[in-house]
Write a structure and sequence with these properties.
Blueprint: H1 2-8, H2 12-21, H3 25-32, E1 36-40, E2 43-48, H4 51-71, E3 75-80, H5 121-131, E4 140-143, H6 150-159, E5 164-168, H7 169-181, H8 185-193, E6 197-201, H9 210-225, E7 229-234, H10 246-252, E8 256-259, H11 265-274, H12 279-285, H13 293-310, H14 316-322, H15 333-344, H16 348-352, H17 358-374, H18 379-385, H19 391-405, H20 409-422
Parallel strand pairs: 2-3, 4-7, 4-8, 5-6, 6-7
Antiparallel strand pairs: 1-2
Helix pairs in contact: 4-9, 5-6, 7-8, 11-12, 17-19, 17-20, 18-19
């Protein structure tokens, strides 16, 4: 009786409520709530803001929408605001796109060039699977601090895969703008889709570029639907990308998300040796060079250049003099805090300030725990080094992180790495 009543008197507000009840609240808010609902005869017409939203909703929530609409005797039609339902012909036959010869932001290198560590073994294995075209996940989203090897890993995938397009985020923005200016955007789209693997390095560069971002997200959907691989790198996890709405964040996180850590002492030593630094000098300075691959490359280059220009090998005393502005001095609580701030992507002033955002509080709590486990500071002293927090605040941070570590292996690994670097 109730089903018959629903079919005779379909009501948009009731339909919306039923759909909301079948979905996670976050997904409803991000995807379905913004749609315009209308009933035209026996059809429930849902209007999306852009083609990306329409395609994503159709692929992920199409069955759910169809089932709910069926309860009211309605079919579903998903349309895009301001776009006629008729098919628009693509005149690619009269367009051409001249791709740049190379994207110098990312070099193509073999996997042997990547120095593995326990912290980055998962990311390396995932990258090799992508290169072998034997994956069931797409996109592969690799994130980590600057200098941890994300771009190097992207270059490894490129070198050992067939038919790969690799662009930096800034390069994609530039090329899309050029295609719009030259009126050959259809040809640019075809170029990006004509590959087995598409790699975008530094996806965070798309932030604030709405038209470019919509085009890229549509590209990700199209490539994934065609069974092709997408690899993305970023300095932060998908849910921490600023300038990306929840729709974009959820799509970028829908494949496999892996994090990368900054090089540890063993990796830094191996990087220096491979760059031509003598092993005894590499042993002596590896732990005193900040965990940033770019900085380590600069250190190696400075030592090699000195030897070439002066015609003699650099001794340890000479190296310490050359790198006086680079090598870390003896560790102090303040230097430890600043080191962790850099790797966590927050400022030292923010950690010591009054900010209470979720990400900032978590970073502050992590720093407190590391100081507790790697030094002999009292709880009151630890509080002083993170903005004069009191004893109770530090105790609360220790309890919260202990609970989180029991279920978050990545957080636990990150904290253990910080402790090792601070001791």
């Amino acid at each position: 009786m109730q089903a018959a009543t629903l079919k005779q008197n379909p009501d948009v507000s009731v339909i919306r409520d039923m759909i909301a009840g079948e979905m996670d609240s976050g997904a409803w808010t991000a995807w379905i709530a913004p749609l315009n609902f209308e009933i035209e005869g026996s059809v429930l017409v849902l209007t999306a803001q852009n083609q990306f939203s329409a395609d994503y909703i159709s692929g992920v929530y199409g069955a759910l929408l169809k089932n709910v609409a069926g309860e009211f005797g309605l079919s579903v039609k998903l349309v895009v605001r301001g776009v006629a339902p008729s098919t628009i012909a693509n005149d690619n036959n009269v367009q051409s796109y001249d791709a740049p010869a190379t994207d110098d932001a990312v070099a193509s290198v073999a996997f042997d060039a990547f120095i593995s560590s326990d912290e980055n073994a998962f990311a390396l294995t995932a990258a090799k699977r992508v290169a072998s075209a034997a994956v069931s996940f797409s996109p592969l989203f690799i994130y980590g601090p600057a200098g941890c090897g994300k771009s190097l890993l992207a270059g490894c995938i490129k070198s050992e895969s067939e038919n790969v397009i690799l662009m930096s985020g800034a390069g994609f923005v530039s090329e899309f703008a050029r295609a719009l200016k030259n009126r050959n955007v259809f040809a640019f789209k075809d170029f990006c889709r004509n590959c087995n693997t598409f790699i975008l390095d530094d996806v965070q560069s798309l932030a604030g570029k709405n038209a470019t971002m919509d085009e890229f997200l549509q590209l990700v959907l199209d490539l994934r639907a065609a069974g092709k691989n997408v690899v993305l790198t970023s300095t932060v996890a998908p849910n921490a990308l600023t300038g990306f709405d929840r729709r974009a964040q959820s799509l970028l996180a829908s494949g496999l998300v892996v994090d990368m850590a900054a090089p540890n002492a063993n990796v830094k030593r191996e990087m220096l040796v491979r760059a031509g630094v003598k092993s005894d000098i590499a042993d002596a300075i590896a732990k005193r060079v900040a965990g940033n691959g770019h900085l380590i490359a600069g250190v190696a280059n400075k030592i090699k250049t000195y030897s070439e220009l002066m015609g003699t090998d650099a001794t340890l005393d000479v190296v310490e003099h050359l790198l006086a502005d680079t090598l870390e001095k003896s560790k102090t609580p303040v230097s430890m805090v600043k080191m962790m701030c850099e790797k966590l992507g927050v400022s030292y002033d923010a950690i010591c300030g009054a900010g209470r955002s979720k990400s900032l509080v978590l970073a502050r709590q992590i720093i407190m725990v590391v100081l507790k486990k790697s030094t002999r500071l009292s709880l009151a002293e630890i509080g002083n080094y993170v903005g004069n927090r009191d004893h109770a605040t530090v105790m609360y941070a220790l309890r919260q992180i202990e609970k989180m570590q029991s279920s978050d292996l990545m957080l636990s690994a990150q904290i253990n790495q910080f402790i090792a670097e601070c001791k």
